[in-house]
Amino acid sequence: MKVSDILRFARERGEPVFSFEFSPPRTEEGMRQLFETVEALRSLAPAFVSVTYGAGGSNRNLAVDVVTRMKRELEIEPVAHMTCVGASRDEVAGLLDELAQAGIQNVLALRGDPPVGQSSFVPHPDGFRYASDLVAFIRASGERWRFAVGGAAYPEAHPQTPDLAVDLVNLKKKVDAGTDFLVTQLFFDNAHYFRFVDRARAAGISVPIIPGIMPFLNVEQLERMTQRCGASIPAPLQGALEARRSDPEAALQLGVAYATLQCADLLRRGAPGIHFYTLNRSPATRAILAALKVSQPWRDAGKR
């Protein structure tokens, strides 16, 4: 089923959607652990799962294999990441053909990160410079590909576009090109998300905007992730992290508790769902989502 339809049906029922993101590992053991994680999370009935691949287009073909297996073996609706990095138009078209032939109905169109060691994005000579170009390419195919197309959004602006106004203009181009839904980069202050949604709506962006949440597992991991994606850490959370820097178990417990409160607040205030960045781990996400499904904070959601 297309994610655009999943979101529409959920909205009609007055319920949120929950989804997970995974990355394809490079080893057989890693692959076994990944599918164990997905199987463990399957009981929570995710609306869809997304599968990324490495910077610079690495693991691209492996990612196609993973989404195909998830669709066939686990009967979970997968969303395949598709980036502009290191691929020509013909190569991208070939991958999209593979996905379509495998019954995949959803892609997340991204510009992508440059390869390790490369400081800036350089488009393939016969490729795409922006995600909006990739979206337009997919839409121009007519009946060849009939994917639901998702895109990325940045509540605190893309790290390479610190100007919020310019970032919003670029996002509008991507949506106007044919993006059906948006998933945000991680953030730790819900005010960033709601201000971003208000700005997007004022700019004429009406597609669903799903907040992306990462339950952090340790302090160093959180600092690496925020530095890479440009997300900020609120001062109270930073202080709590410093107090637990040398206590991994306490940091993990804080990560689960903080993400649970963050998600409950988002859903209570009308977010259409939560997209969990799982880092290929299940325990933290399982605990958070189980608590949310018991408490159902969206039942108190106001209209936005």
List the helices and strands and how they pair.
Layout lengths: L2 H11 L3 E6 L5 H15 L5 E4 L8 H15 L3 E6 L5 H13 L4 E5 L20 H9 L8 E6 L10 H13 L4 E6 L3 H13 L6 E5 L5 H11 L5 H9 L4 H21 L4 E5 L5 H13 L9
Parallel strand pairs: 1-2, 1-8, 2-3, 3-4, 4-5, 5-6, 6-7, 7-8
Describe this structure in words.
The protein is an alpha/beta fold. The chain has one domain (3-300): TIM Barrel. 47% of the residues lie in helices and 14% in strands. It is built from eleven helices and eight strands. Strands 1-2-3-4-5-6-7-8 form an eight-stranded parallel beta barrel, surrounded by five helices. Helix 5 (131-139) links the parallel strand 4 (106-110) and strand 5 (148-153). Helix 5 (131-139) runs parallel beside helix 6 and helix 10 runs parallel beside helix 11 (283-295). The longest helix has 21 residues, at 248-268. The radius of gyration is 18 Å and the shape is globular.
Concise summary:
The protein is built from 11 helices and 8 strands.
What keywords describe this structure?
TIM Barrel; 47% helix; 11 helices
Regions with little confidence, pLDDT below 50 for 5+ residues: none
Count of extended strands: 8
Give the class from helix and strand content and strand pairing. Answer: alpha/beta
Shape: globular
Order of helices and strands: HEHEHEHEHEHEHEHHHEH
Which fold name corresponds to the CATH topology?
A: TIM Barrel
Indicate how many domains the architecture comprises: 1
Strand order of the largest sheet: 1-2-3-4-5-6-7-8
